[in-house]
Amino acid sequence: MDSAVRSVAGSVPHAGPPPGSVPDTGSGSAVPVTLHGDVRVRLQPLTPADRGLYLAGFEHLSPESRLKRFLTPKPSLTEREIRYFTEVDHHDHEAIAASIGGEGIGVARYIRDAHDAGIADVAVAVVDGWQRRGMGTALLRRLAERAREEGVSRFRATMQWANRPMFATIRRLQAPWRTVSTSGGVVEVEIRLLREPVEWTAPAAARFEAGIAG
Ligand SMILES: CC(C)(COP(=O)(O)OP(=O)(O)OC[C@H]1O[C@@H](n2cnc3c(N)ncnc32)[C@H](O)[C@@H]1OP(=O)(O)O)[C@@H](O)C(=O)NCCC(=O)NCCS
Description:
By secondary structure, this protein is α+β, with helices and mostly antiparallel strands. Helix content is about 30%, strand content about 30%. It is built from seven helices and eight strands, in the order H-E-E-H-H-H-E-E-E-H-E-H-E-E-H. The protein binds coenzyme A. The site of coenzyme A (COA) has 23 residues, from helix 3, strand 5, helix 5, strand 6 and helix 6.
């Protein structure tokens, strides 16, 4: 397994938070967003109480979407994974859930790098029936806001090289991004989280690639 695959957000590490150390409520409040078609959806930090919502959402992810999200076939989740994904500390690990009428329809999460506090692995998943309505974009934007509040300045996304929807979702963040590595059909990109969206032009990309701040 190459390093890009190892760093996909949600590869459950050997040591999780000790039981009882996870707060029950998220630090961010619920935010309403309007999707294409004037549909109002609620975004809020995932808590252990949302376990049912999270599992129902997982059931509505197709095998293809699960493969794109986890980069490995994922017919089911283990109890350890469920706890890891739903019992987050909202600082080093944040998860924003989208719901409508109590139905879980998407999750975006970041997990801070253990060695570099400024960078975090990011992943987004929207249930198949809700894709292409602006949900992924809204989730990633909200997650980026939460990340900046917690001192994360860069996201690292590891995904299939051919995952056009995720590339488009990243572009819609209007933030500088660059390819860090490609291997075996998997690409790792790094996204710089800015306070304000920027017009991402070729010269700006070249400056970012060259490591020039701005
Ligand atoms: C990637 C994903 C989160 C995008 O969510 P979404 O709610 O469909 O995204 P949005 O509706 O906000 O669309 C964002 C952009 O992606 C484009 N897009 C969405 N689905 C697409 C598709 N199937 N084919 C081509 N473009 C697509 C949209 O047109 C939009 O681009 P635009 O601004 O050029 O119009 C969703 O496709 C998904 O959950 N995929 C499976 C899991 C996954 O791949 N996760 C990423 C790994 S980290």
